[in-house]
UniProtKB/TrEMBL annotation:
Regions of compositional bias (Basic residues) in chain numbering: 264-278
Assigned protein family: Belongs to the RNase T2 family.
CDD domains linked to this entry: RNase_T2_euk
Alphabetical GO biological process terms: RNA catabolic process
Signal peptide segment: 1-23
UniProt-listed Enzyme Commission number(s): 4.6.1.19
Active site feature: 77, 135, 139
Identification of the protein by name: ribonuclease T2
Ranges for region Disordered: 243-278
UniProt KW Nuclease keyword: yes
Organism from which the protein derives: Penicillium angulare
UniProt keyword annotations, A-Z: Disulfide bond, Endonuclease, Glycoprotein, Hydrolase, Lyase, Nuclease, Signal
Cellular-component GO terms for this entry: extracellular region
Amino acid sequence: MHFYTPKSVLVALAAVNTIGAYAGLTTCSSSSEVLSCHNTTEASDLCCFNYPGGSLLQVQFWDTDPSIGPSDSWTIHGLWPDYCDGDYGEDCDSSREVSDVETILKNQGRTELLEYMETYWLSDDESSNEFWAHEWNTHGTCINTIDPSCYTDYYENEEVGDFFQEVVDLFKSLDTYTALSDAGITPSNDKTYTLKEFQSALGDIHGGYEVTLLCDDDTVYELEYYFNVYGNAVDGTYEPAAPLSDSSCPSSGIKYPLKDSSSKSKRATRSHSRRRRQ
């Protein structure tokens, strides 16, 4: 079994920043950690147990109309907490909604994180800052283990920076493009592939588990890696898990088109917003 263990990133704040030194989430005792979605009794410490959103999905885009991001990489959609039955909540805490993620990350000294997001976390129909705010407001506020009450010496929006850092760290551990390429699945405007071929290739980086692969008709555009987590969503251990929703792609004839650099100026009608699954 493959385990993804994210590394905590301790950020040294700039001298002009009056927030103070980074303190971080309260440490979870290994003896008290329970794998999310696997508890048999009520968890006593909800800062160390993801609930009710115990299934965490790392979601990636393959956008080609317009083409978004590097031609040799998928891009980030987000990290979504789902209930353990495939249902989910959204917009869970309006009091912690933000509108300017870029400024928050700059004020926290997370410039390298911001630069990475500017390349690999992009929207096809709005500004990056609007997209990031949507992902935090809609999904990040639903992750209970990064609630401000779970922090030591909490400062405003600390959990926002931690959320984006964790999403990026998890994305880096799931190099979809390379996994597919190593299996002979490369972008093409002529070739097609089977769902089984995709699942076999991606299972190699996801503990042998399938992913949820989404298509517009027969063209792949998105996928979802499912995880359960020991501990909190930032310092915890992510364990690959079986998907809780079905793929929408056909069993064969799946198109995986090239990204066309000439189409970057187009504006797509498809929103980044989450689609209800069939």
